[in-house]
Specification:
182 residues, mainly alpha, extended
Length: 182
């Protein structure tokens, strides 16, 4: 009789767990249906009208920042084109810095796969994360920005010591002088 009671108890526990699991799955499916984007989807805004971009963001995407030359006039790929593109992507740091795929090349490119979430899909099959300008490329610096950059580089060079052991940029020097780094 004792074994019968144990089996009955197990059956009741499994029945409860199964019904709870079914209910959870049904609730999740219903929630997903409610959250499905519609043509009327609205972007939440901050008080000043800018889009609200607060939250946790995952930047793991195989979509490159700039559009590769082979897709110069093609902002979106077909499913087959996207699949072919993804199959030919290099591994690790070689995806970000051109290298030959050797261990030395990967070392020189910064880090291996463990340091990046490179993603396995293209964002909406787009050929670049940049959508404006329409060519999907970072626009050149304006003349004013080029001048400012040249000034900053000159200032940085002026602050470098001739002693190679003491060479550091103004930023590095200020960080080194903080109490945490002494």
């Amino acid at each position: 009789m004792k074994k019968h009671a144990q089996w009955a108890f197990c059956a009741v526990v499994l029945g409860i767990a199964g019904s709870v699991t079914v209910r959870e799955v049904q609730a999740q499916a219903a929630a997903m249906e409610r959250k499905a984007p519609t043509a009327q989807a609205r972007v939440t805004r901050l008080a000043d009208g800018r889009p609200d971009l607060q939250g946790v963001w995952n930047f793991g995407s195989a979509t490159p920042l700039e559009r590769p030359p082979q897709f110069a006039d093609k902002p979106v790929l077909t499913g087959a084109e996207a699949e072919a593109y993804l199959k030919n992507l290099p591994d690790g740091g070689c995806r970000f810095v051109k290298c030959d795929g050797s261990d030395q090349g990967k070392l020189e490119s910064a880090y291996g796969d463990g340091w990046y979430d490179v993603g396995t899909r293209l964002a909406e099959n787009r050929t670049s994360l940049i959508v404006d300008p329409p060519n999907g490329r970072v626009p050149p610096l304006t003349p004013e920005a080029q001048k400012k950059l040249a000034e900053l580089r000159a200032l940085d060079r002026a602050h470098q010591s001739t002693d190679p052991n003491k060479r550091r940029s103004p930023i590095a020097a200020s960080l080194a002088s903080t109490p945490a780094h002494r």
